[in-house]
Structure formats: C-alpha cells, structure tokens
Amino acid sequence: MIIKGKKIWLNGQMVDWEEAKVHIISDTFCFGYGVFEGIRCYKTGKGRAVFRLRDHLDRLINSGLVLYLNITYSLDELAEAVHKAVGANQFEECYIRPMVYVSSYYESGGDFRNIVPDVAIAVWDWGHYYDEKALTGGIRVKIASYARHHVNVHMTKSKAFANYLNFVLARGEAIRAGFREGLLLDINGCVAEGAVDNVFMVKKGELITPPLTHILEGITRDSVMTIARDQGIPCREEFFTRDQLYVAEEVFFTGTAAEIAPISEVDYIQIGDGTPGPITKELAQLFFDAARGKDKTYAEWLSPVD
Length: 306
Ligand code: PMP
Known about the structure:
α2 crosses α3 (75-87) and α6 crosses α8. It contains eight helices and 18 strands. It has two domains: 3-125, D-amino Acid Aminotransferase, Chain A, domain 1 (2-Layer Sandwich), CATH 3.30.470; 132-291, Alpha-Beta Barrel (D-amino Acid Aminotransferase, Chain A, domain 2). The chain has helices spanning 27-31, 53-65, 75-87, 131-137, 164-176, 219-230, 242-246, 278-291, and strands spanning 3-4, 7-10, 13-16, 34-36, 39-44, 47-51, 94-101, 118-125, 139-143, 181-185, 191-194, 198-203, 206-209, 235-237, 250-255, 259-266, 269-270, 302-304. The strands form two sheets. Strands 1, 2, 3, 4, 5, 6, 7, 8 and 18 form a nine-stranded antiparallel β-sheet that branches. Strands 9, 10, 11, 12, 13, 14, 15, 16 and 17 form a nine-stranded mixed β-sheet that branches. The two termini are 26 Å apart. It is of the alpha+beta class. Residues 38, 167, 193, 196-198, 216, 218-221, 254-256 line the site of 4'-deoxy-4'-aminopyridoxal-5'-phosphate.
C-alpha cells in the first residue's frame, strides 16, 4: 500500500500531487520513452537520510544518456531537488521516484537529442514492499515464462519505463499462479533478476549473484556485496541455472523497494528449511544498520536531509 505525498517537485517547482500530469499522447505515455529511479530515505539517529543518493542519480543520468535523453539538470541540482521533494513531504521514511520523461509528441521523430525532457520527483510512503511478514518469513517466487530482454533488445542497464512491461508481465504471471514475485531468466536460460530486484544465492557459505550482463546494476546489490566482503563472506558473480537455485542453501532478493527479501520457495521447491537463512539474516541486519546510520562504516552512503 502506498501513502501518497502532498507535493511533487516538477521542473523546479513544487506542485500538488494531483497536478503533476502528462499529455495522453506524449512519447513517454505512448512508447515508454523515459527513465526513472527508485531511492529510499531512512530515519537515522541524526534525522532523515537518503540512501546512496548520488549513486542513484548517477544511474539516472546514465539511463538517460544511453537513450539519447539529455537531462538538463546536473547531479548536484538533482540531489538538491530530491532533498526539496523529501523536505516538502513529512514522511519519517519514504520512497523517492525521480522521473525523466517527454511530454512532447511527434516532435522528436525518434531522435530525442534536442528534446528537453521534463523531470519530476515524487515521494511516498511505501513501507516494506513485500510486507513485514515476507521479510521475516520469506517470499514464494516463480520462474517467469518471459525472458529478461536480450542486451540488444532493450538497454538493460537503463532504468527505462518501457523495460518494465517485461517485469510487470513476469510479476502478474507469478501472482496469478499464487506466488509473490516473478524471477526472469536471460535468453540463454540463466537466472537474471526479479521484477524489481537482483537475486543472490548461498552455496557452501559463499554468496553468488549473476554478472551484470543482462541485468540492472543494482545499488542494493552493490551494497550487499560490499557489506558481505567486509564481513569476510566470499562473494562472486557467476551465471547459474534455475536448478542450481532450487538446491541453494539460501536465496534472497535485493532492491531499493524490496530491500533484502528472503526467498522461501522457488517453483514449489522449498529453499533450505523454508525460513530465512543465517547469511541472509546477517546481511539484512547489516544492511538496515548501514541505511539507518547505526553502522558508521557506511556513513558516506547517507545523504542527510534535515
Ligand atoms: N532489477 C530491476 C529490474 C529493478 O527494477 C531494480 C530496482 N531498481 C533492481 C534490480 C534493484 O536495483 P536497486 O538495488 O538499485 O534498487
């Protein structure tokens, strides 16, 4: 469930939530031509702080670049705008959605280099994406019949709106079959990623996650790998198949919305004893300690708002 914010930052102005609109025949509405980010702001001992803000904005700018969309705001200006958007909405913790989109139509002719895209930053309270019970008990996941885009079908490193039809189809299929989330394979049949998350498995105490070839370069993925290595937990990137996942000791998702979500079952096969494993639980605890400023080792990941 989402609790919407009051104000949205829109091209430098704060506007009411209901007033941030886009024309029905805009190129973004019709073709999904645009990019976005998902960021979280956490409550720390020193007030609110945005988690890895500059890394998210860097990815946003690069998402635009690979689609020939030139965001006219600098990273510093975008960071300030995110702070304003969070400041204008009085949530203790919130999800932040910067969006870069094209409100014009038939002007680009397919070449967006000279189009000045709009930028909006919406903020809402999303709580835990997979709910508290899922975080403590684990979620049931289904391998999707839809493959993750080949790298030359869509730009897989760009968080483009259009990419998400693929993920929504995968999730919808999983939910219709009684699962909580879909997990997509790449076109070679190796495990790629979830609909809004990267995936990890634990084998013989070692953490394994797919390489970046076909997937989004997750910032939570990077945080978890950094934390794991700092703890002396070996971690490597390697392609693996769905049956290797079925027999893993532990499996979990990482993502800004999803945070660290233990997976209890894949395609009706129980993972481990069906409850979150020790490495998943340890990494989740360390991740939340970092995000909420309890572990000073990762203080540079926090961008204080208040
Ligand atoms: N893969 C996909 C397809 C996603 O949408 C997301 C969410 N942004 C992720 C992975 C995880 O990325 P991050 O940890 O940066 O949120």
